[in-house]
Design goal:
Nucleoside Triphosphate Pyrophosphohydrolase; Arc Repressor Mutant, subunit A; 7-stranded mixed sheet; two-stranded antiparallel ribbon
Protein backbone atom coordinates (compact mmCIF):
# COMPACT_ATOMS: atom_id res chain seq x y z
CA UNK A 1 0.00 0.00 0.00
CA UNK A 2 1.10 3.56 -0.69
CA UNK A 3 2.02 5.64 2.38
CA UNK A 4 3.00 9.29 2.69
CA UNK A 5 6.72 9.87 2.20
CA UNK A 6 8.91 12.96 2.07
CA UNK A 7 7.86 16.05 0.18
CA UNK A 8 8.78 14.80 -3.29
CA UNK A 9 9.09 11.11 -2.73
CA UNK A 10 6.25 8.69 -2.51
CA UNK A 11 7.35 5.48 -0.88
CA UNK A 12 5.82 2.02 -0.74
CA UNK A 13 6.38 0.17 2.52
CA UNK A 14 5.99 -3.56 3.03
CA UNK A 15 6.43 -5.85 6.00
CA UNK A 16 8.23 -8.40 3.82
CA UNK A 17 10.72 -7.94 1.04
CA UNK A 18 9.11 -7.95 -2.40
CA UNK A 19 10.56 -8.60 -5.85
CA UNK A 20 10.57 -6.22 -8.75
CA UNK A 21 8.50 -7.69 -11.59
CA UNK A 22 9.44 -7.35 -15.26
CA UNK A 23 8.33 -8.80 -18.58
CA UNK A 24 10.66 -9.69 -21.46
CA UNK A 25 9.67 -10.34 -25.08
CA UNK A 26 11.65 -12.68 -27.31
CA UNK A 27 10.48 -11.71 -30.79
CA UNK A 28 11.68 -14.01 -33.54
CA UNK A 29 11.68 -12.71 -37.10
CA UNK A 30 11.28 -15.23 -39.88
CA UNK A 31 13.09 -13.69 -42.82
CA UNK A 32 12.07 -15.75 -45.84
CA UNK A 33 14.10 -13.62 -48.28
CA UNK A 34 17.36 -13.80 -46.41
CA UNK A 35 16.47 -17.32 -45.25
CA UNK A 36 17.35 -16.45 -41.72
CA UNK A 37 15.81 -16.59 -38.26
CA UNK A 38 16.34 -13.33 -36.41
CA UNK A 39 15.62 -11.96 -32.99
CA UNK A 40 14.76 -8.41 -31.94
CA UNK A 41 17.21 -6.82 -29.51
CA UNK A 42 17.50 -3.36 -28.01
CA UNK A 43 20.57 -1.49 -26.86
CA UNK A 44 19.96 -0.37 -23.28
CA UNK A 45 20.43 3.30 -22.50
CA UNK A 46 20.05 3.02 -18.74
CA UNK A 47 22.01 1.27 -16.02
CA UNK A 48 22.52 -1.55 -15.30
CA UNK A 49 24.07 -2.88 -18.51
CA UNK A 50 23.98 0.55 -20.18
CA UNK A 51 25.07 0.16 -23.81
CA UNK A 52 24.60 -3.61 -23.71
CA UNK A 53 22.09 -5.43 -25.95
CA UNK A 54 19.07 -7.01 -24.33
CA UNK A 55 15.70 -8.60 -25.01
CA UNK A 56 13.07 -5.85 -24.99
CA UNK A 57 11.09 -5.60 -21.76
CA UNK A 58 10.62 -3.67 -18.56
CA UNK A 59 8.75 -3.30 -15.31
CA UNK A 60 5.12 -4.25 -14.94
CA UNK A 61 2.99 -1.37 -13.67
CA UNK A 62 0.48 -1.75 -10.86
CA UNK A 63 -2.99 -2.47 -12.22
CA UNK A 64 -1.59 -3.89 -15.45
CA UNK A 65 -1.98 -7.49 -16.59
CA UNK A 66 1.25 -9.28 -17.52
CA UNK A 67 0.33 -9.52 -21.20
CA UNK A 68 -0.58 -5.80 -21.25
CA UNK A 69 2.81 -4.95 -19.77
CA UNK A 70 4.60 -7.14 -22.32
CA UNK A 71 2.65 -5.60 -25.20
CA UNK A 72 3.34 -2.06 -23.95
CA UNK A 73 7.06 -2.58 -23.32
CA UNK A 74 7.55 -4.23 -26.70
CA UNK A 75 5.91 -1.35 -28.52
CA UNK A 76 7.68 1.32 -26.45
CA UNK A 77 11.11 -0.13 -26.98
CA UNK A 78 10.88 -1.44 -30.55
CA UNK A 79 7.75 -0.10 -32.24
CA UNK A 80 6.51 -3.67 -32.78
CA UNK A 81 2.77 -3.86 -32.17
CA UNK A 82 -0.17 -6.13 -32.90
CA UNK A 83 1.79 -9.30 -32.24
CA UNK A 84 0.40 -12.47 -30.66
CA UNK A 85 2.60 -12.90 -27.59
CA UNK A 86 2.63 -16.27 -25.88
CA UNK A 87 3.90 -16.75 -22.35
CA UNK A 88 7.18 -18.66 -22.33
CA UNK A 89 8.44 -19.08 -18.78
CA UNK A 90 9.09 -17.11 -15.61
CA UNK A 91 12.68 -16.56 -14.57
CA UNK A 92 13.23 -15.89 -10.89
CA UNK A 93 16.73 -16.88 -9.86
CA UNK A 94 17.69 -14.52 -7.02
CA UNK A 95 20.96 -13.46 -8.67
CA UNK A 96 19.67 -12.87 -12.20
CA UNK A 97 19.58 -9.07 -11.84
CA UNK A 98 22.30 -6.88 -10.26
CA UNK A 99 19.63 -4.47 -9.00
CA UNK A 100 18.44 -7.12 -6.57
CA UNK A 101 15.44 -9.40 -6.53
CA UNK A 102 13.72 -9.04 -9.90
CA UNK A 103 11.50 -11.75 -11.37
CA UNK A 104 10.77 -11.71 -15.10
CA UNK A 105 7.87 -13.24 -17.01
CA UNK A 106 9.08 -13.97 -20.55
CA UNK A 107 6.88 -13.96 -23.67
CA UNK A 108 7.67 -14.95 -27.24
CA UNK A 109 6.31 -14.52 -30.74
CA UNK A 110 7.25 -15.29 -34.34
CA UNK A 111 6.67 -12.50 -36.86
CA UNK A 112 7.64 -11.36 -40.35
CA UNK A 113 10.35 -8.71 -39.90
CA UNK A 114 9.31 -6.78 -43.01
CA UNK A 115 5.80 -6.26 -41.63
CA UNK A 116 7.05 -4.21 -38.68
CA UNK A 117 8.51 -0.74 -38.65
CA UNK A 118 11.17 -0.96 -35.97
CA UNK A 119 12.13 2.17 -34.03
CA UNK A 120 13.50 2.49 -30.53
CA UNK A 121 11.93 4.95 -28.12
CA UNK A 122 11.81 4.53 -24.33
CA UNK A 123 14.85 3.13 -22.51
CA UNK A 124 16.50 1.93 -25.72
CA UNK A 125 19.20 3.60 -27.81
CA UNK A 126 18.38 1.44 -30.78
CA UNK A 127 16.38 -1.62 -31.66
CA UNK A 128 17.28 -4.05 -34.40
CA UNK A 129 17.09 -7.59 -35.73
CA UNK A 130 20.04 -9.94 -35.17
CA UNK A 131 20.48 -13.33 -36.83
CA UNK A 132 20.02 -15.89 -34.04
CA UNK A 133 23.36 -17.40 -35.05
CA UNK A 134 25.35 -14.23 -34.27
CA UNK A 135 24.07 -12.48 -31.19
CA UNK A 136 26.04 -9.89 -29.25
CA UNK A 137 26.61 -10.48 -25.52
CA UNK A 138 23.30 -9.95 -23.74
CA UNK A 139 22.39 -8.23 -20.46
CA UNK A 140 21.11 -10.02 -17.35
CA UNK A 141 20.24 -13.71 -17.93
CA UNK A 142 18.91 -12.87 -21.38
CA UNK A 143 21.05 -15.46 -23.12
CA UNK A 144 19.26 -18.07 -21.06
CA UNK A 145 15.84 -16.57 -21.81
CA UNK A 146 16.69 -16.43 -25.52
CA UNK A 147 17.84 -20.07 -25.49
CA UNK A 148 14.63 -21.18 -23.76
CA UNK A 149 12.53 -19.35 -26.36
CA UNK A 150 14.48 -20.86 -29.26
CA UNK A 151 14.10 -24.32 -27.79
CA UNK A 152 10.37 -23.78 -27.31
CA UNK A 153 9.72 -22.60 -30.83
CA UNK A 154 11.80 -25.40 -32.36
CA UNK A 155 10.11 -27.99 -30.18
CA UNK A 156 6.69 -26.66 -31.09
CA UNK A 157 7.36 -27.21 -34.79
CA UNK A 158 7.08 -30.93 -34.12
CA UNK A 159 3.53 -30.73 -32.79
CA UNK A 160 1.99 -27.45 -33.97
CA UNK A 161 1.83 -25.57 -37.25
CA UNK A 162 4.20 -22.74 -36.31
CA UNK A 163 4.53 -19.69 -38.50
CA UNK A 164 2.49 -21.14 -41.37
CA UNK A 165 0.58 -17.86 -41.46
CA UNK A 166 3.83 -16.06 -42.29
CA UNK A 167 4.04 -17.73 -45.71
CA UNK A 168 2.53 -16.07 -48.77
CA UNK A 169 -1.09 -17.11 -49.33
CA UNK A 170 -0.02 -19.31 -52.22
CA UNK A 171 3.25 -21.09 -51.65
CA UNK A 172 5.38 -23.92 -52.92
CA UNK A 173 6.42 -26.99 -50.95
CA UNK A 174 9.96 -25.67 -51.14
CA UNK A 175 8.92 -22.45 -49.40
CA UNK A 176 7.19 -24.40 -46.64
CA UNK A 177 10.29 -26.53 -46.22
CA UNK A 178 12.39 -23.35 -46.00
CA UNK A 179 10.21 -22.16 -43.12
CA UNK A 180 11.01 -25.32 -41.18
CA UNK A 181 14.68 -25.16 -42.11
CA UNK A 182 15.01 -21.52 -41.09
CA UNK A 183 13.43 -22.05 -37.68
CA UNK A 184 15.32 -25.30 -37.06
CA UNK A 185 18.59 -23.89 -38.36
CA UNK A 186 19.38 -26.95 -40.46
CA UNK A 187 18.60 -28.58 -43.80
CA UNK A 188 15.94 -31.25 -44.09
CA UNK A 189 15.78 -34.07 -46.57
CA UNK A 190 13.58 -32.93 -49.50
CA UNK A 191 11.92 -36.23 -50.23
CA UNK A 192 11.15 -36.95 -46.57
CA UNK A 193 9.78 -33.47 -46.08
CA UNK A 194 7.38 -33.75 -49.00
CA UNK A 195 6.20 -37.11 -47.78
CA UNK A 196 5.51 -35.85 -44.26
CA UNK A 197 3.84 -32.65 -45.38
CA UNK A 198 1.47 -34.50 -47.71
CA UNK A 199 0.75 -37.02 -44.96
CA UNK A 200 -0.43 -34.11 -42.80
CA UNK A 201 -3.19 -33.63 -45.37
CA UNK A 202 -3.65 -29.88 -44.89
CA UNK A 203 -2.50 -28.60 -48.28
CA UNK A 204 -4.73 -27.86 -51.22
CA UNK A 205 -3.15 -27.93 -54.62
CA UNK A 206 -4.26 -24.87 -56.57
CA UNK A 207 -3.63 -26.14 -60.07
CA UNK A 208 -1.43 -23.06 -60.59
CA UNK A 209 2.29 -22.76 -61.10
CA UNK A 210 4.74 -20.18 -59.80
CA UNK A 211 5.37 -17.29 -62.21
CA UNK A 212 8.39 -15.14 -62.94
CA UNK A 213 10.91 -17.36 -61.22
CA UNK A 214 14.38 -17.95 -62.68
CA UNK A 215 14.15 -21.69 -61.99
CA UNK A 216 11.62 -24.30 -63.05
CA UNK A 217 8.19 -23.16 -61.87
CA UNK A 218 6.76 -25.23 -59.00
CA UNK A 219 3.18 -26.04 -58.06
CA UNK A 220 1.40 -23.62 -55.75
CA UNK A 221 -0.52 -24.69 -52.67
CA UNK A 222 -2.60 -23.12 -49.98
CA UNK A 223 -3.79 -24.42 -46.65
CA UNK A 224 -7.16 -26.06 -46.45
CA UNK A 225 -8.69 -23.75 -43.83
CA UNK A 226 -10.83 -26.38 -42.15
CA UNK A 227 -8.10 -29.00 -41.98
CA UNK A 228 -5.58 -26.40 -40.87
CA UNK A 229 -7.79 -25.38 -37.94
CA UNK A 230 -8.21 -29.04 -37.01
CA UNK A 231 -4.45 -29.40 -37.10
CA UNK A 232 -3.97 -26.48 -34.72
CA UNK A 233 -6.52 -28.02 -32.39
CA UNK A 234 -5.35 -31.59 -32.34
CA UNK A 235 -1.63 -30.94 -32.91
CA UNK A 236 0.56 -32.82 -35.30
CA UNK A 237 3.63 -34.96 -35.18
CA UNK A 238 6.31 -33.89 -37.52
CA UNK A 239 9.36 -35.91 -36.70
CA UNK A 240 12.35 -33.93 -37.78
CA UNK B 1 16.34 -2.81 0.43
CA UNK B 2 15.73 -3.27 4.15
CA UNK B 3 15.61 -0.06 6.20
CA UNK B 4 15.29 0.48 9.91
CA UNK B 5 11.66 0.67 11.06
CA UNK B 6 10.00 0.97 14.44
CA UNK B 7 11.26 -0.96 17.44
CA UNK B 8 9.67 -4.29 16.50
CA UNK B 9 8.86 -3.79 12.86
CA UNK B 10 11.27 -4.06 10.01
CA UNK B 11 9.93 -2.39 6.91
CA UNK B 12 10.88 -2.58 3.26
CA UNK B 13 10.54 0.66 1.34
CA UNK B 14 10.41 1.00 -2.42
CA UNK B 15 10.06 3.93 -4.78
CA UNK B 16 7.55 2.01 -6.89
CA UNK B 17 4.77 -0.32 -5.91
CA UNK B 18 5.82 -3.97 -5.98
CA UNK B 19 3.76 -7.15 -6.23
CA UNK B 20 3.69 -9.95 -3.75
CA UNK B 21 5.03 -13.14 -5.36
CA UNK B 22 3.59 -16.57 -4.69
CA UNK B 23 3.92 -20.07 -6.12
CA UNK B 24 1.05 -22.56 -6.50
CA UNK B 25 1.34 -26.30 -7.10
CA UNK B 26 -1.33 -28.24 -8.99
CA UNK B 27 -0.57 -31.85 -8.04
CA UNK B 28 -2.53 -34.43 -9.98
CA UNK B 29 -2.90 -37.89 -8.52
CA UNK B 30 -3.36 -40.78 -10.93
CA UNK B 31 -5.33 -43.35 -8.98
CA UNK B 32 -5.14 -46.55 -11.02
CA UNK B 33 -7.16 -48.58 -8.46
CA UNK B 34 -10.06 -46.19 -8.22
CA UNK B 35 -9.60 -45.29 -11.89
CA UNK B 36 -9.76 -41.62 -11.09
CA UNK B 37 -7.75 -38.47 -11.62
CA UNK B 38 -7.44 -36.48 -8.43
CA UNK B 39 -5.96 -33.18 -7.35
CA UNK B 40 -4.39 -32.22 -4.03
CA UNK B 41 -6.12 -29.38 -2.22
CA UNK B 42 -5.62 -27.77 1.17
CA UNK B 43 -8.12 -26.08 3.44
CA UNK B 44 -6.77 -22.63 4.28
CA UNK B 45 -6.51 -21.70 7.93
CA UNK B 46 -5.60 -18.05 7.40
CA UNK B 47 -7.38 -15.08 5.84
CA UNK B 48 -8.23 -14.36 3.11
CA UNK B 49 -10.44 -17.32 2.21
CA UNK B 50 -10.05 -18.89 5.66
CA UNK B 51 -11.74 -22.31 5.63
CA UNK B 52 -11.87 -22.38 1.83
CA UNK B 53 -10.10 -25.04 -0.25
CA UNK B 54 -7.14 -23.97 -2.37
CA UNK B 55 -4.25 -25.21 -4.43
CA UNK B 56 -1.21 -25.58 -2.13
CA UNK B 57 1.25 -22.69 -2.36
CA UNK B 58 2.52 -19.55 -0.70
CA UNK B 59 4.91 -16.64 -0.79
CA UNK B 60 8.37 -16.89 -2.34
CA UNK B 61 11.09 -15.91 0.10
CA UNK B 62 13.92 -13.55 -0.79
CA UNK B 63 16.96 -15.49 -1.97
CA UNK B 64 14.87 -18.48 -3.01
CA UNK B 65 14.48 -19.75 -6.56
CA UNK B 66 10.89 -20.20 -7.77
CA UNK B 67 11.18 -23.97 -7.95
CA UNK B 68 12.66 -24.09 -4.43
CA UNK B 69 9.73 -22.05 -3.13
CA UNK B 70 7.23 -24.33 -4.89
CA UNK B 71 8.94 -27.45 -3.51
CA UNK B 72 9.04 -26.02 0.01
CA UNK B 73 5.43 -24.81 0.06
CA UNK B 74 4.16 -28.11 -1.32
CA UNK B 75 5.93 -30.10 1.35
CA UNK B 76 4.98 -27.70 4.16
CA UNK B 77 1.30 -27.70 3.29
CA UNK B 78 0.76 -31.30 2.15
CA UNK B 79 3.76 -33.46 3.06
CA UNK B 80 4.30 -34.27 -0.63
CA UNK B 81 8.02 -34.27 -1.44
CA UNK B 82 10.39 -35.54 -4.10
CA UNK B 83 8.07 -34.63 -6.95
CA UNK B 84 9.14 -33.38 -10.38
CA UNK B 85 7.41 -30.00 -10.63
CA UNK B 86 7.10 -28.39 -14.01
CA UNK B 87 6.33 -24.71 -14.47
CA UNK B 88 2.83 -24.21 -15.85
CA UNK B 89 2.09 -20.52 -16.25
CA UNK B 90 2.28 -17.24 -14.36
CA UNK B 91 -0.97 -15.60 -13.30
CA UNK B 92 -0.83 -11.88 -12.74
CA UNK B 93 -4.24 -10.31 -13.21
CA UNK B 94 -4.34 -7.32 -10.88
CA UNK B 95 -7.60 -8.37 -9.23
CA UNK B 96 -6.80 -12.04 -8.67
CA UNK B 97 -6.04 -11.61 -4.94
CA UNK B 98 -8.10 -9.57 -2.45
CA UNK B 99 -4.89 -8.68 -0.55
CA UNK B 100 -3.78 -6.54 -3.49
CA UNK B 101 -1.22 -7.05 -6.20
CA UNK B 102 -0.01 -10.65 -5.95
CA UNK B 103 1.47 -12.52 -8.90
CA UNK B 104 1.61 -16.31 -8.79
CA UNK B 105 3.87 -18.71 -10.66
CA UNK B 106 2.04 -22.02 -11.01
CA UNK B 107 3.68 -25.46 -11.19
CA UNK B 108 2.18 -28.88 -11.85
CA UNK B 109 3.02 -32.55 -11.48
CA UNK B 110 1.44 -35.96 -11.90
CA UNK B 111 2.05 -38.48 -9.12
CA UNK B 112 0.76 -41.74 -7.65
CA UNK B 113 -1.38 -40.80 -4.64
CA UNK B 114 -0.55 -43.99 -2.74
CA UNK B 115 3.17 -43.19 -2.85
CA UNK B 116 2.76 -40.04 -0.78
CA UNK B 117 1.90 -39.67 2.86
CA UNK B 118 -0.31 -36.59 2.94
CA UNK B 119 -0.42 -34.46 6.08
CA UNK B 120 -1.15 -30.76 6.43
CA UNK B 121 1.16 -28.58 8.49
CA UNK B 122 1.80 -24.87 7.88
CA UNK B 123 -1.11 -22.61 6.90
CA UNK B 124 -3.41 -25.54 6.13
CA UNK B 125 -6.09 -27.13 8.30
CA UNK B 126 -6.11 -30.23 6.19
CA UNK B 127 -4.81 -31.52 2.89
CA UNK B 128 -6.51 -34.13 0.77
CA UNK B 129 -7.11 -35.55 -2.68
CA UNK B 130 -10.27 -34.58 -4.57
CA UNK B 131 -11.52 -36.24 -7.75
CA UNK B 132 -11.07 -33.61 -10.48
CA UNK B 133 -14.73 -34.11 -11.38
CA UNK B 134 -16.00 -32.95 -7.99
CA UNK B 135 -14.00 -30.07 -6.62
CA UNK B 136 -15.20 -27.78 -3.84
CA UNK B 137 -15.26 -24.01 -4.54
CA UNK B 138 -11.66 -22.77 -4.64
CA UNK B 139 -9.99 -19.65 -3.23
CA UNK B 140 -8.54 -16.83 -5.36
CA UNK B 141 -8.38 -17.63 -9.11
CA UNK B 142 -7.49 -21.24 -8.30
CA UNK B 143 -10.29 -22.65 -10.44
CA UNK B 144 -8.64 -20.98 -13.41
CA UNK B 145 -5.17 -22.24 -12.43
CA UNK B 146 -6.55 -25.75 -11.98
CA UNK B 147 -8.29 -25.62 -15.39
CA UNK B 148 -5.07 -24.47 -17.07
CA UNK B 149 -3.13 -27.33 -15.48
CA UNK B 150 -5.73 -29.91 -16.51
CA UNK B 151 -5.71 -28.61 -20.06
CA UNK B 152 -1.91 -28.73 -20.15
CA UNK B 153 -1.63 -32.28 -18.91
CA UNK B 154 -4.36 -33.51 -21.27
CA UNK B 155 -2.80 -31.69 -24.19
CA UNK B 156 0.59 -33.13 -23.38
CA UNK B 157 -0.72 -36.68 -23.64
CA UNK B 158 -0.97 -36.14 -27.38
CA UNK B 159 2.74 -35.39 -27.80
CA UNK B 160 4.60 -36.74 -24.77
CA UNK B 161 4.54 -39.97 -22.77
CA UNK B 162 2.85 -38.58 -19.64
CA UNK B 163 2.71 -40.62 -16.48
CA UNK B 164 3.99 -43.82 -18.08
CA UNK B 165 6.39 -44.14 -15.13
CA UNK B 166 3.37 -44.39 -12.81
CA UNK B 167 2.37 -47.77 -14.28
CA UNK B 168 3.63 -51.00 -12.73
CA UNK B 169 6.92 -52.17 -14.30
CA UNK B 170 5.05 -54.88 -16.17
CA UNK B 171 1.65 -53.83 -17.42
CA UNK B 172 -1.10 -54.79 -19.80
CA UNK B 173 -2.30 -52.74 -22.77
CA UNK B 174 -5.57 -52.34 -20.89
CA UNK B 175 -3.73 -50.71 -17.97
CA UNK B 176 -1.93 -48.32 -20.29
CA UNK B 177 -5.25 -47.45 -21.92
CA UNK B 178 -6.73 -46.83 -18.47
CA UNK B 179 -3.96 -44.31 -17.78
CA UNK B 180 -4.96 -42.34 -20.86
CA UNK B 181 -8.65 -42.66 -20.06
CA UNK B 182 -8.21 -41.52 -16.47
CA UNK B 183 -6.21 -38.43 -17.42
CA UNK B 184 -8.50 -37.58 -20.35
CA UNK B 185 -11.64 -38.30 -18.38
CA UNK B 186 -13.26 -40.31 -21.17
CA UNK B 187 -13.30 -43.78 -22.73
CA UNK B 188 -11.19 -44.54 -25.78
CA UNK B 189 -11.90 -47.09 -28.46
CA UNK B 190 -10.02 -50.30 -27.52
CA UNK B 191 -9.08 -51.37 -31.01
CA UNK B 192 -7.88 -47.90 -32.03
CA UNK B 193 -5.89 -47.54 -28.84
CA UNK B 194 -4.06 -50.84 -29.36
CA UNK B 195 -3.28 -49.89 -32.93
CA UNK B 196 -1.85 -46.50 -31.97
CA UNK B 197 0.14 -47.79 -29.03
CA UNK B 198 1.78 -50.51 -31.10
CA UNK B 199 2.50 -47.99 -33.86
CA UNK B 200 4.48 -45.98 -31.27
CA UNK B 201 6.83 -48.93 -31.12
CA UNK B 202 8.00 -48.48 -27.52
CA UNK B 203 6.54 -51.58 -25.91
CA UNK B 204 8.36 -54.85 -25.39
CA UNK B 205 6.26 -57.96 -25.04
CA UNK B 206 7.54 -59.98 -22.12
CA UNK B 207 6.17 -63.37 -23.10
CA UNK B 208 4.45 -63.44 -19.71
CA UNK B 209 0.82 -63.35 -18.77
CA UNK B 210 -0.95 -61.61 -15.89
CA UNK B 211 -1.47 -63.82 -12.85
CA UNK B 212 -4.14 -64.02 -10.21
CA UNK B 213 -6.70 -61.94 -12.06
CA UNK B 214 -10.39 -62.81 -12.01
CA UNK B 215 -10.70 -62.26 -15.75
CA UNK B 216 -8.85 -63.79 -18.69
CA UNK B 217 -5.12 -63.13 -18.18
CA UNK B 218 -3.63 -60.59 -20.59
CA UNK B 219 -0.13 -60.27 -22.01
CA UNK B 220 2.38 -58.22 -20.03
CA UNK B 221 4.55 -55.52 -21.53
CA UNK B 222 7.27 -53.17 -20.44
CA UNK B 223 8.73 -50.10 -22.07
CA UNK B 224 11.78 -50.47 -24.23
CA UNK B 225 14.04 -48.07 -22.34
CA UNK B 226 15.96 -46.85 -25.35
CA UNK B 227 12.90 -46.29 -27.51
CA UNK B 228 11.06 -44.72 -24.60
CA UNK B 229 13.84 -42.18 -24.11
CA UNK B 230 13.78 -41.41 -27.82
CA UNK B 231 10.06 -40.90 -27.59
CA UNK B 232 10.43 -38.41 -24.76
CA UNK B 233 13.02 -36.55 -26.79
CA UNK B 234 11.29 -36.42 -30.13
CA UNK B 235 7.72 -36.34 -28.86
CA UNK B 236 4.88 -38.38 -30.24
CA UNK B 237 1.56 -37.78 -31.85
CA UNK B 238 -1.22 -39.67 -30.25
CA UNK B 239 -4.41 -38.40 -31.78
CA UNK B 240 -7.17 -38.96 -29.30
Amino acid sequence: MRTAGKADTRVFKYEYERPGLTVDCVIFGLDLDEEMLKVMLIERDVAPYEGVWAIPGGFVRPGETLIAAATRELEEETGIAGVFLEQLYTFGDPDRDPRGWVVSVAYYALVSPEKHHVHATADARQARWFPVTSLPPLAFDHERIFAAALERIRGKLTYAPIGFELLPQKFTIKQLQKLYEIVLGRKLDNRNFRKKIFAMDVLRELGEMQRGVPHRAARLYKFDERKYRQLIKRGLNFEL
